[in-house]
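Hi support team,

I submitted a single chain yesterday and got back a structure, but I'm not sure I'm reading the token output correctly. Could someone confirm the output below corresponds to the sequence I sent? I've pasted both exactly as they appear in my results page.

Thanks,
R.
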Amino acid sequence: MQNFHKGSLEVICGSMFSGKSEELIRRIRRVEFAQLPVQVFKHSLDNRKTIEHINAHSGYNYPAIAAENAEAIENFLLPESMVIAIDEIQFFDKSIIDICMKLITLGKRVIVAGLDLDFRGIPFGCMPDLLSRADSITKLKAVCNQCGADAHHTQRLVSGKPADFNDPLILVGAQECYQARCRNCFEITYNSLAQVQA
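Hi R., thanks for writing in. Yes, this is the structure output for that exact sequence:
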């Protein structure tokens, strides 16, 4: 009986400006060098710069299929693809987890990148489940915009001030409304004492 090898799940995570997309692109290029068929996806909410590329803050980019949900990714998948890369995976709902696990069962190498914490400092969407199932995790750190320490929080700013806990969860942007912050410099505004105690 022939042994069938299952695939793997690699998760790249961290705050904004930590180099997640850059690391994902680096791995994709290594896959290309190895001449393995690869497909690259991103969430369509990420429309910064161009919708048809993964765009790293460093200036690197790579062509990608923009998908609005996990079902769209499944519809675009080609059977010959051996490696599936997904950027901004935190924007997908939890059905993306089933897609990733199905691909792994089929022997695919799945590489995903996304924010592990939202702007409130709470685990972001599907990320906790993906992190707990990962074969390998790369947690990247940015540089705190305030003090220069290692940063793993994403600070959202509204008119130059820390965002409120009740603000909308998703607001696509870059330096104009986000900063990387360390734990000491990270701030969140609460409208009620009940949120502080929660």
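A quick pointer for reading it: The radius of gyration is 17 Å. Let us know if anything else looks off.

Best,
Support desk
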